[in-house]
TrEMBL record:
PANTHER family: DEAMINATED GLUTATHIONE AMIDASE, NITRILASE-RELATED. This is Carbon-nitrogen family hydrolase. Residues 12-262 form the CN hydrolase domain. It comes from the Bacteria. Signal peptide: none annotated. GO terms for molecular function: hydrolase activity. It comes from Nocardioides furvisabuli.
C-alpha cells in the first residue's frame, strides 16, 4: 500500500485495487473476494478496479459465455458494495451483452468491453464502451463491438462536481482520445487495464505522457497475476498534471491509496499555459 498527500484544499482520496488472479479462481469467487476487499478498505472517495478483472482480460475464449448485461450479477453485486461502502466505485470493465431485443452494435455482435462507474447510492452513474479494441484482428476486434462515444462523468464530492473522464487500457496508445477528454474539461482520467508484463514500460511511459500533455490527473489501475498464459504487468500508478508519478505499485496484488489535489489542474494550466498555444 502506498499513499501520497495533496497539499491543496480540493482533495479526492482514491484507492486503486490491483487485483491478481489466475485461471483456477472461479468468476463468482473472485467477485465475492473483491467485494469483501472493498468493504474492508479504509476510507476513500473513489475506488477503482481493473479492466475485465472478473471476466479475464485475455480469456477471450470464454467471453461469449460469461458476458452479461449491465444489470447482470456482477454489476448488481458491485452496486451493493458501492452503497454499503458509501464510495464512488469504478467497477473496472465487464464483457457487456446487449439487452434482449436491444441494439446489437454496428457489426451485430452484441458484446462490448464496458467500464461502469457506480455512485455511493448504488446506482449506475456512467458507462463507457471501449473505443479502441486490442488484438490486431483477434480477441477484442474479432469478438466485440467498438464503442463510439466518449464518457465524462460528474462526480459529486464534498459539495463539488468533479469532471472525470473514462478510458480503458489500449485507449492509452491513442492520444487524440485523451485530448478530446481534455477539451471536455476533465480534471481526472480513470484508466482501468489488463496490461501485460512484456509491455509494462509502455504502460508507465504512456500514462505519464497522457497526463503531461493534457495537464490532468491520470489514474491507471492494472491487473496482476497470470491468466490465459499471460503474465500481467501490475504497476498501477497515479500521475499528476505535471507528468510526475506520485504513487505506484509493483507487480503483485495490492491497493494504492492517494490523496490527489484537483486544484493542481487549474494551477498547472495557468502557470504553464501550453494548451492555449494549440493550432490544431
Amino acid at each position: 500500500m502506498t499513499g501520497v498527500v495533496g497539499t491543496g484544499p480540493h482533495r479526492l482520496r482514491v484507492a486503486l485495487l490491483q487485483v491478481a488472479y489466475g485461471d483456477d479462481e472461479p468468476l463468482a469467487d473472485r467477485v465475492e473476494r473483491v467485494s469483501q476487499w472493498i468493504r474492508g478498505l479504509e476510507r476513500a472517495d473513489l475506488v477503482v478496479l481493473p479492466e475485465l478483472w472478473a471476466h479475464g482480460g485475455f480469456a477471450s475464449a470464454t467471453w461469449e459465455t460469461t458476458a452479461e448485461p449491465i444489470n447482470g450479477p456482477i454489476i448488481e453485486q458491485m452496486t451493493a458494495v458501492a452503497r454499503d461502502a458509501g464510495v464512488w466505485l469504478h467497477a473496472g470493465s465487464i464483457i457487456e451483452r446487449a439487452a434482449e431485443n436491444g441494439d446489437q452494435g454496428a457489426e451485430g455482435r452484441g458484446l462490448w468491453n464496458t467500464s461502469v462507474l457506480l455512485s455511493p447510492h448504488g446506482t449506475v452513474h456512467k458507462t463507457y464502451r471501449k473505443i479502441h479494441r486490442f488484438g490486431f484482428g483477434d480477441g477484442e476486434p474479432r469478438l466485440l463491438e467498438a464503442g463510439t462515444e466518449l464518457a465524462v462523468a460528474e462526480l459529486a464530492h464534498a459539495g463539488r462536481a468533479d469532471r472525470i473522464g473514462l478510458a480503458t487500457c489500449y485507449d492509452l496508445r491513442f492520444p487524440e482520445l485523451f485530448r478530446e477528454l481534455g477539451n471536455l474539461g476533465v480534471d481526472v482520467i480513470v484508466l482501468p487495464a489488463a496490461w501485460p508484463m512484456p509491455r509494462v514500460e509502455h504502460w508507465r511511459l504512456l500514462g505519464r505522457a497522457r497526463a503531461l500533455e493534457n495537464q490532468t490527473w491520470v489514474l491507471q489501475c492494472n491487473t496482476a497475476g497470470t491468466h490465459s498464459g499471460i503474465e500481467m504487468g501490475g504497476h498501477s500508478q497515479v500521475v499528476s498534471p505535471t507528468g510526475e508519478v506520485v504513487a505506484e505499485l509493483g507487480a503483485d496484488e495490492g491497493v494504492l491509496f492517494a490523496d490527489i489535489d484537483l486544484s493542481l489542474v487549474a494551477s498547472v494550466r495557468a502557470n504553464f499555459p501550453v494548451l492555449a498555444d494549440r493550432r490544431m
